[in-house]
Amino acid sequence: MLCHLCQNEAQKSGQNRSGSQRYYCGECRRYFTDQSTRFLDRRCVAPETMTMILRLLLEGNSIRALERTFGVHRDTIIANMVESGEACQAFFEKTVQNVPVEDVQCDEIWGFVGMKEKTRLRNEAPEWFGDVWCFTALERTTKLILTYHVGKRTPTDTAIFADNLYFATQGRFQLTTDGYKPYRPAIRAILGARVDYATLVKVYGDSADDGRYSPGVVIGTVETAVLGEPDEDRVCTSHVERANKTLRMGIRRLTRLTDAHSKKWENHEAAMALFFAYYNFVRVHGTIKMTPAQRAGLTSETWSLERLLSEAGRV
């Protein structure tokens, strides 16, 4: 390694606290770090190990459990997850575009960053803390996640999600959502000419269990045609709700009644992006016996996680 000041040969001299290689120049008596290799040196972990850690993260393991198992610091695991998630987010937006669809279902899944919304309001914390919602759109036949949006449960975020769905799909299709009111104006304004749109609202009875997290029994549904001529037999949100259950099982920070919640908004968004790309291209769906991307014609084979990261420009 040449000293960047005097261009003489420098000797290795340990590592800094970030794990980067330090050098000492005997000529000018200075210590320095090779900034061009800092990204790789900072981890000091084999790529195969980091890929295995990501795979286990995507299967519902917690970050601290992986820290104990592999002896890799949690900050390193989080940094790798965030960088991989950001790459997968860009890849997802570029790849899942203009997909032919027939039957789309939309739903929202709840999580929180740092604290729950009631605590955020009491503490007057910034908007990037508190409740966070992920809007998802699933194609019923192929099981493909067409688009998603991480944000608050507001009309503005609903409109952004509808706009994402517009560019992710092509042609006319049937669309079903729950009864969340901002869906109607957003879909009417952005997707109105392309969808046969209906809402499905579940009616719950009294819960037989007094437990805090025991929902009431569904005793009926209310189906309402909003736009076009939706087929009553296909008005359904069960498939996207089941996909959201998969999210809760596969993303530890969404698991209820644990302390494995997100501490930063960007970490939450990266974790969601990484999982959605993994779900579409790597994870074989139990119903269709292939990946959703294969069924939708986006790829001809099942990808490995290494292939996904490579296509996303991560490795």
Description:
The protein is α/β, with parallel strands linked by helices. The chain is 37% helix and 23% strand. The protein is built from 11 helices and 11 strands. The protein has helices at 38-41, 47-57, 63-70, 74-95, 117-123, 155-168, 183-190, 238-250, 265-281, 292-295, 305-311; strands at 11-15, 21-25, 30-33, 99-100, 103-113, 130-139, 145-151, 169-170, 173-177, 195-204, 218-227. The strands form 3 sheets. A 6-stranded mixed β-sheet has the order 7-6-5-9-10-11, sandwiched between helices. A hairpin with a 5-residue loop joins strand 6 (130-139) and strand 7. Helix 4 packs across helix 9 and helix 6 (155-168) runs parallel beside helix 7. The chain is elongated, with a radius of gyration of 23 Å.
Key features?
single chain, alpha/beta, elongated, 315 residues, six-stranded mixed sheet, 11 helices, three-stranded antiparallel sheet
Instruction: Indicate the proportion of strand residues.
Output: 15-25%
Round the mean pLDDT to the nearest integer and report it: 89
User: Helix-strand pattern, N to C?
Assistant: EEEHHHHEEHEEHEEHEEHHHH
Largest sheet: 6 strands, mixed
Low confidence ranges: 37-42
Number of helices: 11
The helix content is: 25-40%
* Gross geometry: elongated
Rg of Cα set: 23 Å
Separation of the first and last Cα atoms:
25 Å
The total count of strands amounts to 11
Structural class by sheet pairing and helices: alpha/beta
Largest sheet: spatial strand order = 7-6-5-9-10-11
